[in-house]
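Summary for the steering committee. The consortium agreed at its last meeting that each partner would contribute one worked example illustrating the joint modelling workflow. Our contribution is presented below. We chose a case with several input lines so that the handling of multiple components could be demonstrated. No manual editing was applied between input and output; the record is shown as generated.
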Amino acid sequence: MRKQALLKVYELAKKNHDIIFIGSDLGIGTLENFKAEMPEQFFMEGVSEAHILTMSAGMASQGRIVFINSIASFLLRRSFEQFYLDICCENKHVIILGSGGGGVYAPLGHTHTIYDDFAITHNFPNLTTFAPCDPVQMELAIEYATFNPGPYYIRFGKGNEPNITNDNTSQNFITNHGLKLQSDSSLLFITTGITAHIALEVQKLLESNSILSHIYQLNKVKPFPEKEIESLIDNYQHIVIIEEHLEFGGIGSIIKLLSYRKVLHFHLGRNLISHYGRQNDILENQGIDVQSIFKSCIHLFQKE
Amino acid sequence: MINISQKSKQIRLKSLDVFSYANRGHLPSAFSIVEILVTLYYQFMNNNPLSVTENTHDPIILSKGHGCISLYVILADLGFITDHDLRSFCCKDGILGGHPTSFKIPGVEVSTGSLGHGLSFATGMAITFKQKKNDRKVAVILGDGECNEGSVWEAALSIHKHQLTNLITIIDYNKLQSYSSTEEVCPLEPFKQKWQSFGFSVHEVDMINTPEQLLNTLNQDHSSPPLIICHTLKGLGSDILENNLFWHHKNKVSQSQIHELKRSIR
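What follows is the complete predicted structure of the assembly.
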């Protein structure tokens, strides 16, 4: 998937000279033709991920569209603050291509794997996150990111994934959409990234046991399509979520939260809070104050 | 031609007003950079509301964002922001806070506050200016304590690699950081040689006695990326604040103390 992704960036860069590619210290020969044909658009900047991310924000402030590729764990964990502050809060057109999302580098150990990337980036303002399941979705994601300014994180799969979507597929899709399920035993898989392939295998096995199912695959993980998901899950008796991510902070924990409606949740919202003022001003502005919470609690009992 | 001493005194007095509106802020860190800011904004860089609107300006990045009070006063003086904005310093409906936010304040290129970011951001700008054959330049003001950050030295490697002579790095070497002296917390010396070894053309200016020398230094031609170590004092220009660590985080200051501070401005 990485190979196709970098090829796509190369093709786009040929058409738009504001497109810049930056690597840290990637493998020999990476994008050799890109470097030879467009040397001004190609950067290999050394093992300095934190610097590279902020530098890319500076380039983007002057009209560049910057693609950065390195191992996802270094780009997200080591450079967390640079990604958050300089790219996302500043809303710069920088696209992070994270190699080895999930356990691609499991043989190399925990320093190189990243099973919590959705959780890490979930509250990054302005950020769009993609987790393609195959090369077709990867190309869709890169094209979308190129033509819609803003910050992006794209999680790469392990490579050599067969295409399970086609060129006409929208970002998120449902397999067997037209297939009518029995209402009393309907089952929906919700998945993202490479676990779509596992869902498909399970679906086939279930089908041989006369159990029919649909699969909802998210390419775009953030912003989370919660309205779509909410209306979907109401239509199925059973929901199975599969993701290559730790339990908390991934798509599963969001969907579980959406499904559990008894909870009144007072929180600080979803967007960047950049107001000045005192701490209490911020809390009150977001409805976290005694009177607001008291009124909401009373309302619960009045309804009953 | 502007008189640096007079202008700096005016900026410091107004900074005290701004501090008093919120009764908070990093006054000594703002005072140590006044002459640097005055030289950049009024004498050397093309940076005013018109040039910023036309995007032909020379960006100035205050990487040590906590010194922002004097920056705000200059932005108001130049017409980027209003006196009303200054009066709302740190208020919930104001645009000016204890660290500058780019998407609120006209004239601020990038939000700063967390240290060690400004030099990398400027690197990206300078590379782009150079590639686009644009003769714009970018200046970054770093704190000395900020040079403890590894990302500063990552940026230094990169600036040397790309030979960014259009990026001017200025260090406010006041020799005090939050807890104590730079010498005690994390020694920087031999500071000049460190930067030289990274490939910079390093200059030193005594901002306490001869601040006008900064402009002369800036006007020199540089064959390698320029870096100017400005020898300053924390709280420079005020007999009460100078070299007084007690004031670094001081807030809740009475009006009589503000008057005393105003009288202490040279």
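The radius of gyration of chain B is 17 Å. The first strand of chain B starts at residue 60 and ends at 62.
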